[in-house]
Write a structure and sequence with these properties.
Nucleoside Triphosphate Pyrophosphohydrolase; single chain; about 140 residues
Length: about 140
Amino acid sequence: MDIRVAAYGVIIDDGRMLLAHWSENGKSSWTLPGGGIDPGEDPADAARREILEETGFMAQLDGLIGVDSRVIPASARFVSGAPPLHALRIVYAARVVSGELQNEANGSTDRAAWFDLAAVASLKRVAMVDAGIRFHRDSGR
């Protein structure tokens, strides 16, 4: 079984949520800005780095709001012949402190956008988005 540890930010501002559009191996969905932690990297540093890479925004993290653990069966992986994947996702509440919205170049996401929070449920999105909204709500933020 593969394991992937990643860190993400839930950024909700004035009734809008910032999402990144993940596109890889012919599959695509909206997701929380964030991604894999490099070896030896602190999860909070990884979340800030990934948010900047995927959205163009510098973010301040306002606290850990959840950890999501999911095992993805081999049959659901996007890489043919890959074993099951244990995805461990560390989720922070975050807010934009500077920067301008921009799309990631040469990464696993191809664009970033703000969405009215009420419209997020109608998007093609990964389950991590719903988990992030739930973590954010449950944290009282």
